[in-house]
Amino acid sequence: MNMIRTYLLKHRKxxxxxxxxxxxxxxxxxxxxxxxxxxxxGDKMTLATAxxxxxxxxxxxxxxLDLENEYKKGFKI
Length: 77
What we know:
Elements: H1 6-14, H2 19-26, H3 30-37, H4 47-57, H5 61-73
Helix pairs in contact: 2-3, 4-5
């Protein structure tokens, strides 16, 4: 079962970025970024990717890492 990374969706929309724009700026395909947001990819997000996302979404790296940890807690039973 996959969970949507709502924090990515929320911050992307707050920054008025489309999936295409976000993917292009991250240097990944639109499909890959979409799967990342949907929780179907990126189980082990690299620090470099987290840093790029933080920069693009204008939030701190610490916030991205904290949000990603909270997201991952949703999988624990």
